[in-house]
């Protein structure tokens, strides 16, 4: 019985995978309700960072090149999208197109240079580029980025296309997709559809000859070169694709909240996406998404907790124990969420470098071998 | 002319800090083969050793203000002053230099604990995993600091006697306007002393000789019956001490806050790579070089020509050097190449 079930899952085609995935994503408001994660803001974050992580996984998961500069593309995507809102139209489609294109161009430039080196040198090169962009966003590029205030919509923006077709309405306009507002759940469903498309592309890449080549590069690049295939074009392409995914995610961040700030480009933000990818499982299709879900969910919960909540939570205990426990746990919640994140990160790398997916796999094999042995022994008895 | 000289001194100063951190990074990398992203956090902890020491010295008691007689006014008076009078105040004044006495053993302990507790489990793992786990550790250490000291920079003044500026101009005959803060000069001097003593330690002592031999061919040294691992662990502690002292001394120049470690780490890593992974001389040379370049680029003449260059010069140089000289300035052959 178990075996037959496994076979069904093994033989699943691309179509069933994507359909299952789409169903899973679109019903998120339902099955996330019991754990208290069913509100638009958080759901949007899940899917947007999901796109970011899926894209990052195409580079890091498939080729093993550890980029410390992917937050740049997220930031560039956001800025481009907000500029598109300011200059052309509040429709999100052009914004997303521009963002993907421009971050793709920048990724091509950075990738072309960085991909000349590998290993830690590649990481440092991408880090150096990221720091350049970050520092410039706060100094020379202030006319474009609006510095520390962040780039935001204004009443008197040009908005050529919108103003050509209709009279400007009073108040700040909001982002829309041919009339569909991008606030709340409609925003989430829009991002979810984009995520499903992005996931489909990533899955196709994973299962294509191109993806196989990238995996081969990860396992032994020298051998790839010896058999006469030039790895550089493939690496640069992977870098560009993952940069475009990041740009798209950045654009969606701006779609759901039209504000772009340079702190999105800080190198620790790149660290965060690495963390999500690794937590879930590098190089697996679903791993990064699980990582995003876990981290964004925990972030949401932990950073909302304060001392009063803790006191309430431990209130069943005697007063001294309550105070003691609150004193112990307080540094890890609220503002201290990053501490918990750092510890979680270290624990994962130390004990489970393959991420949660590897953990599931281990549990599954242990359970399966056990049940198989059990069934064998029962058949013998019969 | 004056401004160029001032910027040169600034650059040497900054370069001193960069070189000290990069030196420790390279030592750790050369001996243990570990890429330590938590090294910036050691610099940070060093700076906060100075802050803590100063806080402990200035533990205060509320006493009646004798100057105000109309009502009961209280002022804070440090215990040291209450107990020792003028001597106590003098001790408080010298908090930062004195803190180094505490910083050295503390950093040694932290370094050894870090190596034994975490790093040694990562010798055999990939560099990517080493980077990631130490990155996590850096976040943890930084957040612990933030929990105890808050998010704002904490001013940590240098002793009064050196808080002014040195009239360098009059010494070398360039006019009285050419002055430079004393403490920065002291920092530069002590950075030079620390760097030379590290090199002296490595080149003039038996311990250093064994360590260098171990960096060159670890297996062979181990065959000779020497416990290389223990020596390397001590080197890790030494690297932590160097970074910590650099941090403690830097506190009066830049009031420490919780993310200064990360800020310095990125630049130091770039410097290590520019100098050549595994080359101590390269790290020191690149540290000073990039420090000076950064300072020169921030001059008004330069930034009016190329706006924003001061922000990116280090990274730009790094990119160019990495692409043209793959091993960095002084990198050895066969280190970190794949």
What's the short story on this structure?
The complex is a heterodimer of chains A (382) and B (338). Chain A is mainly alpha-helical and 382 residues long. Chain A has helices spanning 2-10, 14-26, 28-31, 40-63, 71-87, 92-114, 119-137, 142-145, 160-165, 184-206, 209-219, 221-226, 232-256, 267-280, 287-304, 307-313, 319-329, 337-351, 355-381; strands at 151-152, 176-177, 180-181, 259-260.
Give structural notes.
- The complex is a heterodimer of chains A (382) and B (338).
- Chain A has 382 residues and is mainly alpha-helical.
- Chain A has helices at residues 2-10, 14-26, 28-31, 40-63, 71-87, 92-114, 119-137, 142-145, 160-165, 184-206, 209-219, 221-226, 232-256, 267-280, 287-304, 307-313, 319-329, 337-351, 355-381, and strands at 151-152, 176-177, 180-181, 259-260.
- Chain A has a two-stranded antiparallel ribbon. A two-stranded antiparallel sheet of chain A has the order 2-3.
- In chain A, helix 4 runs parallel beside helix 10, helix 4 crosses helix 14 and helix 6 crosses helix 7.
- Chain B is mostly helical.
- Chain B has a single domain, classed as ABC transporter involved in vitamin B12 uptake, BtuC, CATH 1.10.3470.
- A two-stranded antiparallel ribbon of chain B has the order 1-2.
- In chain B, helix 1 runs antiparallel to helix 11 (228-250).
- Chain A binds chain B through residues 64, 66, 113, 116-121, 123-125, 127-129, 131-132, 135-136, 138-141, 221, 267-268, 271, 274, 278, 331, 335-336, 338-339, 341-343, 345-346, 349-350, 353, and chain B through 35, 118, 121, 125, 127-129, 131-133, 135-140, 143-144, 146-147, 262, 266, 269-270, 273, 277, 307-308, 311-312, 314-316, 318-319, 322-323, 326, 336, 338.
């Amino acid at each position: 019985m178990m075996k037959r079930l496994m076979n069904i899952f093994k033989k699943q085609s691309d179509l069933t995978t994507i359909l299952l995935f789409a169903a899973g994503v679109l019903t998120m408001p339902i099955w996330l309700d019991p754990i208290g994660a069913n509100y638009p803001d958080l759901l949007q974050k899940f899917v947007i960072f999901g796109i970011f992580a899926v894209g990052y996984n195409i580079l890091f998961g498939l080729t093993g090149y550890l980029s410390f500069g992917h937050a740049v593309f997220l930031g560039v995507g956001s800025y481009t999208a907000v500029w598109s809102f300011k200059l052309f139209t509040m429709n999100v489609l052009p914004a997303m197109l521009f963002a993907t294109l421009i971050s793709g161009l920048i990724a091509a430039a950075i990738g072309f240079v960085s991909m000349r080196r590998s290993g830690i040198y590649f990481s440092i090169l991408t880090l150096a580029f990221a720091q350049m962009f970050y520092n410039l966003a706060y100094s020379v590029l202030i006319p474009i980025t609006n510095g520390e205030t962040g780039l935001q919509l204004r009443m008197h923006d040009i908005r050529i296309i919108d103003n050509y077709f209709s009279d400007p309405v009073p108040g700040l306009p909001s982002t829309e997709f041919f009339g569909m507002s991008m606030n709340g759940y409609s925003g989430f469903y829009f991002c979810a559809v984009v995520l499903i498309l992005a996931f489909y592309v990533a899955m196709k890449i994973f299962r294509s000859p191109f993806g196989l080549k990238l995996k081969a590069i990860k396992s032994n690049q020298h051998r790839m070169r010896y058999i006469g295939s030039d790895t550089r074009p493939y690496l640069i392409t992977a870098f560009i694709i993952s940069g475009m995914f990041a740009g798209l995610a950045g654009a969606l961040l701006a779609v759901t909240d039209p504000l772009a700030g340079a702190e999105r480009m800080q190198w620790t933000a790149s660290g965060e996406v690495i963390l999500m990818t690794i937590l879930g499982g590098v190089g697996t299709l679903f791993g990064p998404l699980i990582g995003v879900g876990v981290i964004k969910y925990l972030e949401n919960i932990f950073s909302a907790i304060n001392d009063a909540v803790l006191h309430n939570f431990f209130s069943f205990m005697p007063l001294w124990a309550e105070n003691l426990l609150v004193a112990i746990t307080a540094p890890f919640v609220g503002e201290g969420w990053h501490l918990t994140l750092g510890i979680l990160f270290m624990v994962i790398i130390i004990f489970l470098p393959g991420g949660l997916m590897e953990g599931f796999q281990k549990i599954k094999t242990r359970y399966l071998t056990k049940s198989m042995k059990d069934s064998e022994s029962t058949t013998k008895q019969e | 002319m004056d401004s160029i000289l001032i910027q040169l001194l600034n650059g040497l100063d900054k370069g001193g800090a960069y070189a000290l951190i990069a030196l420790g990074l390279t030592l750790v990398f050369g001996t243990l083969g570990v890429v330590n992203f938590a090294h910036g956090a050691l610099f940070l902890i060093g700076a906060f050793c100075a802050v803590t020491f100063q806080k402990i010295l200035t533990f205060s008691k509320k006493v009646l203000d004798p100057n105000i007689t109309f009502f009961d006014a209280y002022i804070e008076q440090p215990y040291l002053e209450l107990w020792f009078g003028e001597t106590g105040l003098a001790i408080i004044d010298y908090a930062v230099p004195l803190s180094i006495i505490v910083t050295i053993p503390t950093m040694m302990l932290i370094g050894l604990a870090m190596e034994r507790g975490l790093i040694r489990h990562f010798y055999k793992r990939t560099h990517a995993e080493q980077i990631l786990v130490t990155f996590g550790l850096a976040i943890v250490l930084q957040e612990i600091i933030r929990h105890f000291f808050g998010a704002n920079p904490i001013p940590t003044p240098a002793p009064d006697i050196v808080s002014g500026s040195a009239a360098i101009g009059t010494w070398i005959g360039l006019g009285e306007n050419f002055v430079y803060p004393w403490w920065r000069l002291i920092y530069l001097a002590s950075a030079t002393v620390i760097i030379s003593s590290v090199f002296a330690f490595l080149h003039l002592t038996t311990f250093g000789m064994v360590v260098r031999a171990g960096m060159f061919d670890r297996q062979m040294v181990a065959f000779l019956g020497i416990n290389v691992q223990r020596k390397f662990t001590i080197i890790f502690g030494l690297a932590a001490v160097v970074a910590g002292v650099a941090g403690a001394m830097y506190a009066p120049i830049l009031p420490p806050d919780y993310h200064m470690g990360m800020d310095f780490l990125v630049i130091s890593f770039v410097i290590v790579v520019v100098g050549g992974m595994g080359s101590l001389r390269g790290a020191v040379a690149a540290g000073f070089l990039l420090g000076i370049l950064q300072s020169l680029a921030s001059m008004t003449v330069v930034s009016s020509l190329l706006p924003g260059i001061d922000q990116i010069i280090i990274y730009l140089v790094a990119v160019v050097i990495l692409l043209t000289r793959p091993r960095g300035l002084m990198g050895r052959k066969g280190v970190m190449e794949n």
